Amino acid sequence: MTATTDRPQAPELLATGHRRLLEQLRADGVRFLFGNPGSSEEGLLDEIARFPDIDYVLGLQEAAVVSTADGYAQATGRPGVVLLHSGVGLGNAVGSLYHALHRQTPMLVMAGEAGVAYDALEAHMSVNLVDIAKPVTKYATRATHPDSLLRLVRRCLKVAATPPRGPVFLALPQDVLDQISGEPVVPTTVPDTRVVPEPGAIQAAARSLAGAHTPVILAGDGIAASGAVGELTRFAEIWGAVVYGAMASELLMPWTHPLWGGLTGHMFGDSSASLVAQADAVLICGTYVFPDVFPDLENPFRPGATVVHVDLDPYAIAKNHPVTTGMLGDPRLTLHALTGALEEAMTDPQRHAATERVHRRTVQRTAEVDRALNDDLGAGRNADSAPLRMTAVAAALAAVLPDDAIVFDEALTNSPALTRWLPPARPGHFFQTPGGTLGVGIPGAIGAKIAHPERTVVGFTGDGGGMYTCQALWTAAHHRIGAKFVICHNGGYQLLKDNLEQYRQEHDDDPGAAFPPFFDVREPRVDYVNLAAGMGVPAARARHAAELPTILRTMLDHDGPYLVEAVLDDPGDTP
User: What is the C-alpha to C-alpha distance for residues 227 and 234, in angstroms, rounded to an integer?
Assistant: First the structure.
């Protein structure tokens, strides 16, 4: 990545709030400041040019800026730092902040404003920034004095990085930053939260789980944040339980593992509840139950089922439904302790039964995967003349993508095909939107590439989602960030069509009717090749499978950002 400009060193005697803030960020190892500039941050923007070790990543629209910082934070595990412009900039960013809050992305978002002195005047662009930010952040506050500026910055960084992690907001009045700040610069202290329940509680929970016949595990991003992928996988193997990801956007266990059951839905509660309906014991770890748009209001667990909930967020434990045991603890340490206690608590017949469950699941899962891949291959036999399918795109990409590549997946309805051929298997190499906010795929991939410039990064999105943050393509071209992008172009909002079909079936409401015309994005059809070119990113359009090997190889070999528009058939045109 290239620097925005050649930057002279700052005079050491300059000690306004502008300089002190940047010195604080430097002390905390912040290398990138993601932003879109505005007039209420002029002094800070001018000061950034004197800090050659903090690179300003310029974006053209705030939703894209926040999502780029989100991708960077996901890929590094460290807070992304964002600078926005007043109420209009923060307002544009709210949707992306909602996404960051629900996937618990550590992030410090700052917005400049004219000054505290002007509050009573209700001047142009005057608005209560803290009130705007509160619903979509973990913590929101405003600096009002130069000698409390740095403690607020440190507090925000601490809150953002402390589990449950999340975005925080700090309003920066320019007249506060213009003043001399006497605060010392010291690194932020983030508390160590790697706690584990006391041994008696662990042993009691293990005894309650040991005799399960139909166990299920529900896991979330708390597993990834804790680095507990190995511990979760080991526990599932010992217990003989299928694992489902609930509100999961990172790898929780290898998707190639036979005990991986996939993701719960995020739309309809009865679909999620069906996953645990027959379970006599459930372990919930690193998430809450259930994160659906239309949740099931009834208790999803069968009567008498043992439910153990482990999380570092006490609010998440038993948040919506009763549990048998709730334990506050770090997922990695707690799962490690629980695995040892479970091995001691299980009898020989119980161990044998768990082994048999794993064996049956392995046979079943192997058959399911083979059948799905064979169906994909069968559907592609006449691929040269038939419309392009996502399975062909994913299979062709799997043949050429490096083993250490990072995938940022917002393919949504095309994600199942993508992950069949590119199953996530390594922590830190796969990120996925948990749903709720469109437009995270392109900027998320850019942020991940900034975090790991040595790796190949490919971001996937749809023709609907891509339009929300297409401005991020310019950022990739401007800073020469070599992320790659695939647009799954099926001419409309396929997810809406799928959800409407289910809604109609549940309500017996004319399931064969045509879809609303505003579910399509065709007249005119968005031309992503020319759109990307207009942003400075070369692109190619793929219509047939035979074109894919050459196009994808060109994409990967290109020194810089590159976009492929995959023109897919639209199976949702008619129900």
Answer: 13
